[in-house]
Specification:
Elements lengths: L1 H11 L21 H4 L6 E7 L7 E11 L5 E11 L9 E7 L24 H6 L3 E5 L15 H15 L7 E10 L1 H16 L4 E8 L5 H8 L3 H18 L12 H7 L7 H11 L17 H7 L11 E6 L7 H13 L4 E6 L4 H20 L10
Parallel strand pairs: 4-5, 4-6, 6-7, 7-8, 8-9
Antiparallel strand pairs: 1-2, 2-3, 3-5
Helix pairs in contact: 1-9, 4-5, 7-8, 8-9
């Protein structure tokens, strides 16, 4: 048990293994009426101050805003905004970095904005504040707010990222402008790549200067089949398949054994950014068994469309991209990432590909963030983007 727990902490969520939940805001903060949800995407519905560490050169707020799900239906999302107070040449038009977080779970209480030190869940936050940016971090709809969450539902999470940037611009004290960089890790890298693909159509007023992703899942069917024999792969599959079953109206019984259904539900009730949640998930996944999938979801009607629609096989050709990949990652497989990058390069994408020798899924965040923050700063400063496909 201890060996698996240690590996799971390192591989799935390295940033906040013992995060505790803060005294929450009034529960009603995370709720909104359908009329509020139906307001234009990115409308700031609620805002309240968040405390920051003493002498931290930023102001912060918890936010609730309107967005759209994968089908374009009104929904609300929560998140947070951390606005640097470092002097800049244009303090009323600060650059925005829209952050998308990695897997924390699919239960409402797992929202990063609910944690005791919510800003610490943002990779590179100290450096980004030091550079004078406004950092906005979506929780994704369904974390904090009523669900269902669209875990690895690319378009829905992309909407949440872009609408979070819109909402941040509606906080006068933040001083946010129009220039935006997208930034995410793991699940969040998937969201950032999708946001880069749809930004010009969905949020044309935002000037997307680049998208940086560490260990982003791309071709989901290939990754699912490659990972399903591992503990981590089965847990992530349980999150994904339960979410898609609810989001798309699909039946788990078409692809998963009857004996696994209770375990899937148990896993989806846990937050894996706490040791307690990780222990509960590891216990529950034992009941999945190595063969809990009856069929390849990519070959089952309905599930095949969800798998296809939420995969990235050709990344954006209009937005500069940075993709960072650990060469020893056994969750987001390097061979899959390389193929997607090759597809993009063949179409003229502007991709910088950074490999991290000897680094796995968890350690790629620690060892890749400095390169990503530096690359983001170059894009927001207007530096040229030489095509550097491998």
């Amino acid at each position: 048990m201890i060996k698996w727990l240690y590996a799971f902490i390192l591989c799935v969520l390295p940033m906040a293994a013992t995060t505790s939940v803060a005294k929450p805001p009034e529960a009603s903060f995370y709720d909104a009426s359908l009329a509020d949800a139906a307001r234009p995407p990115g409308t700031l519905l609620k805002v309240e101050s968040l405390s920051m560490p003493p002498l931290y050169r930023a102001r912060a707020w918890r936010i609730l805003y309107s967005t759209r799900d994968v089908a374009g239906r009104p929904i609300v999302s929560s998140g947070m905004v951390i606005a640097s107070t470092v002097a800049t040449a244009q303090p009323s038009a600060r650059k925005i970095v829209s952050w998308a977080h990695p897997t924390v779970g699919t239960a409402r209480r797992c929202a990063p904005s609910l944690q005791a030190r919510p800003h610490s869940s943002i990779l590179g936050i100290n450096e980004l504040v030091g550079l004078g940016y406004v950092v906005v971090a979506t929780d994704y709809p369904g974390l904090g707010t009523p669900g269902p969450i669209g875990y690895l539902v690319g378009k829905g999470q992309a909407h949440a990222m872009l609408d979070a940037a819109r909402a941040a611009r509606n906080i006068p004290a933040a001083g946010a402008g129009n220039d935006v960089a997208l930034w995410g890790y793991s699940q969040g890298g998937h969201a950032a790549l999708f946001a880069a693909q749809i930004a010009s159509r969905y949020a044309p007023e935002l000037q997307i200067k680049g998208a940086a992703a560490i260990a982003p899942p791309t071709d989901l069917r290939r990754l699912l089949l490659a990972d399903i024999d591992s503990v981590e792969g089965r847990v992530l599959a349980a999150f994904t398949l339960q979410s898609w079953a609810v989001k798309y109206g699909l039946s788990l019984r078409d692809i998963a054994s009857e004996a696994s259904l209770a375990a899937i539900l148990t896993i989806n009730r846990q937050c894996i950014d706490t040791v307690e949640g990780q222990i509960a998930v590891l216990k529950a996944q034992k009941k999945l068994g190595r063969q809990f999938l009856l069929n390849d979801p990519g070959k089952v009607r309905g599930w095949d469309a969800a798998m296809r629609d939420n995969s990235i096989t050709v990344p954006s050709t209009s937005v500069p991209l940075l993709i960072v990949q650990g060469e020893s990652d056994d969750i987001v497989r390097p061979a899959v990432t390389r193929q997607v990058i090759a597809n993009g390069c063949a179409r003229g994408a502007r991709i910088k590909y950074v490999t991290l020798p000897g680094r796995g899924h968890g350690t790629s965040a620690k060892f890749g963030s400095a390169s990503a923050v530096s690359w983001i700063a170059e894009r927001l400063a207007g530096a040229g983007v030489p095509r550097s496909c491998p």
